[in-house]
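Students often ask why we bother predicting the structure of a whole assembly rather than each chain alone. The short answer is interfaces. A chain on its own may look different once its partners are present, and contacts between molecules only exist in the joint model. In this exercise we take two input lines together and write out one structure for the complete complex. Read the inputs first and try to guess which parts will touch.
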Amino acid sequence: MSTNLTAVLDHIDADFDHSLERLFKLLRIKSISADPAFAGDCKAAADYLAGDIASLGVKAEVRPTGGHPAIVAKPNGKADGARPHVLFYGHYDVQPVDPVELWHSPPFEPVVTDHADGRKIIVARGAQDDKGQLMTFVEACRAWVAVTGSLPVDVTFLIEGEEEVGSKHLVSFLENNRNDLKADFALVCDTSMWDPNTPAITTALRGLVYDEVRITAANRDLHSGLFGGAAQNPIRVLTRILGGLHDDNGRVTIPGFYDGVKDLPPDILAQWKALDFTPESFLKPIGLSLPAGEKDRLLIEQVFSRPTCDINGIFGGYTAEGSKTVIASHATAKISFRLVGGQDPDKIRAAFRDFVKARVPKDCRADFIDHSGAPAVSLDWNMKPLAAAKRALTEEWGREAQLIGSGGSIPVVGDFKRVLGLDSVLVGFGLDDDNIHSPNEKYDLKSFQKGIRSWARILAALAESPKA
Amino acid sequence: MSTNLTAVLDHIDADFDHSLERLFKLLRIKSISADPAFAGDCKAAADYLAGDIASLGVKAEVRPTGGHPAIVAKPNGKADGARPHVLFYGHYDVQPVDPVELWHSPPFEPVVTDHADGRKIIVARGAQDDKGQLMTFVEACRAWVAVTGSLPVDVTFLIEGEEEVGSKHLVSFLENNRNDLKADFALVCDTSMWDPNTPAITTALRGLVYDEVRITAANRDLHSGLFGGAAQNPIRVLTRILGGLHDDNGRVTIPGFYDGVKDLPPDILAQWKALDFTPESFLKPIGLSLPAGEKDRLLIEQVFSRPTCDINGIFGGYTAEGSKTVIASHATAKISFRLVGGQDPDKIRAAFRDFVKARVPKDCRADFIDHSGAPAVSLDWNMKPLAAAKRALTEEWGREAQLIGSGGSIPVVGDFKRVLGLDSVLVGFGLDDDNIHSPNEKYDLKSFQKGIRSWARILAALAESPKA
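Now the answer. The structure tokens for the assembled complex follow.
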């Protein structure tokens, strides 16, 4: 290990309280991208982060998109091409906080507290996803600059503010800012470890199609006593359609849904089988015990390599306390599909809509809202920066870093490849119990500190490895 | 027609503006029984009405129940038994007003306005159900007292405040106040006309079972990317169960649901077939065209004489603007069943719950809330006061009054028979397009005015007819 890296790692540990303070400043900003009421907070988060990143020897700018702004920060002076140039990606926007009454502390007042099992954790909306994660990289860069006066590789930053709402404006932003985003490859910090002690690099990501359907029946709410039985009930129509999306074996019933989906290569399947991925380890912590997916698939396949369909929200009629004998005029549901390689998002969306329309009674109407879509991504397991990152992670954690799949979608990875021609290395320090998208989101203090140290090592390893 | 009645009818027309003012005072009170936040308003409505009724020569009291209070008003002095004694029933509570943004004017600021087709209408929550309806009777009594100094029959009033939440405390109230509620028969004003020009007396009422089910899966909300496919989704579970409540022919699939349900006698069926009750007349005004009930039944049977199942509300997961890739921890639905003669409410509720429990995955849970239940009621078409009421209505409207069924439930009718031994005569002036339980509830000005005149005639007819 180089003298420089040793000094950088020592600096990270010595300065850790300040790293935490800086993270807390970012966590206090209510940058909820889904809700227009928080647009000002999203802008404030972008401004704050751009100011912070500017101290790393890069030229940071907040740039408009069709929605919430993005931050682009380029190396000062010209990157001379002699050393590796990485594009780092993260997102400053966070999920909504509802139901807020389930939070043990206010979601935008970060605290360090004790987890039930004794782990120290940071609790706040965005503590992990993605403010905590992106700050591991920023703090690693800060330590390199503090100790050596500069970064060991050229770094361009791209921090967006619409990841949690499907990165709607990112592709056009990449196209319009192509020249400023040139790099050799991308680093993305928005994924998880294998377990609390085992680091991981994610090399397969499921895609996503997110759609909303609204069934309209009568032209107004009706009294269920006067009209019940004779008038179509849009909740009945909706539940009948959604209730038919899976068969008794947990397979999605939409015609053509599995077109192009391939079985795992036998060697990967064998590797996954060897992992401790059981209902006991994966479902018990969340209070469940039975895999809900396709009955003829391993649990790990259900999560990493098989496409799924979930209803993320449903609403209709009277839902307050007590009872109301009403037949609603309309009912809505939000439905998302996790896609794997071979599935075309546009075809899946069309097939879903056809499935719904074919089942709507003739005197009712189905309307749809397209919330987002992205194909699945499979990364090259043999790309060179991946080996450097794997070595650095293994050294920091004292355990072999795993190459894994992820059930979640990070559409930017596909966009980077398509628009910028860049491969991505996905390293993150999240854990399955981080409650991202839920009340009481947390990030292990250990994830934050060793995450910073991991990136410091990865930057050193990339600087030493031949250009990809 | 007696001189007295002529004078009373003239007085009603001359005093109609004041009748409207008094109704408006009652409509301005936000007596929503379903929402505990409005308990004070319910009390205020009871106090106001008791004060108003006291001016009719009766002794009116607001009496506590286990929930919102009820008004009991008895004849001053002893009813001597020489003339008919009626128990009049109405309710001062109203339905919630959501979605309030769909109201064209604030729900508790009554206005008289023009309907699209030119009819004058009173618009407010409760304009019809049941404040407008009950005030037709109160105003008829007021006119008799104003013109003749007294009522033509003995009248006891019972006005309750929990009809819209299932009249939960009414049975025990009837039991505890049995002595003060003695009468020869009951008059109930909470039903509809056959059409805007044809009066009706309702002689068959469907019963009601109202239940709420909550499906719980994981112990917290989950990220659908990380857990989708492997973890049970309570919305998927709920929609699958509810989507299976009806078969392709519109029949309810709960085992035993139709036990005891009888076909109509051929003569009644023939009479109903002769009525103009078609998709064109009944469904088109609400924007629909196809009967949604059992395919082998007439539309009028689906509404009047067949049991039904409706989902009145459903909620789960993320339902705000935009998208959130969440798997909810739980999902809920409110389900109601309209019952007909022969169906036992307790058995139906148990059968529904068994149906749900048999379909819940082993690692999920189903919890239930009992919102209310009441059996169906069939009244004696040959009871004597019914003939008097039919004659009076026919005279007022110039069209033969129809004896009809009603899809809605008025549990009090069964309770009156069981607890007090009283038959009921159900007369009301509602119309199908009154939007009761919906935004922009209205009552035709004609319904209000001719409703008052109808009751004035009915009171006279009852006074002249031999005691039942």
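Check your guess against this: Chain B has two domains: 3-205+376-464, 208-261+307-374.
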